[in-house]
Amino acid sequence: QVRLVESGGGLVQAGGSLRLSCAASGSISSINAMGWYRQAPGKQRELVARITNDGNTDYTDSVRGRFTISRDNAKNTVYLQMSSLKPEDTAVYYCNADVSTIFLMRNDYWGQGTQVTVSS
Predict the structure, then answer these.
(1) Which distant-in-sequence residues (6+ apart) come within 8 Å of 41 by Cβ?
(2) CA distance 82 to 21
(3) Are the beta carbons of 52 and 32 closer than 8 angstroms?
(4) What is residue 22's predicted lDDT score, i.e. its pLDDT?
(5) What is the pLDDT of residues 72-101, one digit of tens each?
C-alpha cells in the first residue's frame, strides 16, 4: 500500500505565499510523475502542476510564473511553492503520484487534500 500525506495549506491574503508538501510512503519501488491538482467548489478537479522523475515540469496556464513544483526523490516528496496568490486559487489541493510498487504494480495514488484559501 502507498500513502500520500499533504501539508502546508491554510489561509493567506491575496499576494501572499504558501508552500505545500506531499510525502509518499509505503511499498514504493519508484515514483514516476508527481503532481498537484485542485478542486474549487462547484468545479472539476484540474491539474495545477506536474513533475516527472527526471525533473521536467508542466503548469496550467493560470499558475505559470507564480507557482513552482519541485521534488526530492530521496524523500519521495513533492512540493508546490505558491506565490502571488489570488482569490481564484482558493481550492482543495490534492497530491498525486504515479507509483511503481515493490509488488510490480503501477498505480495512481492520491492524498487526502489540503485546503488553500486566499482572501481578497
Answers:
(1) none
(2) 11
(3) yes
(4) 98
(5) 999 999 999 999 999 999 999 999 999 999
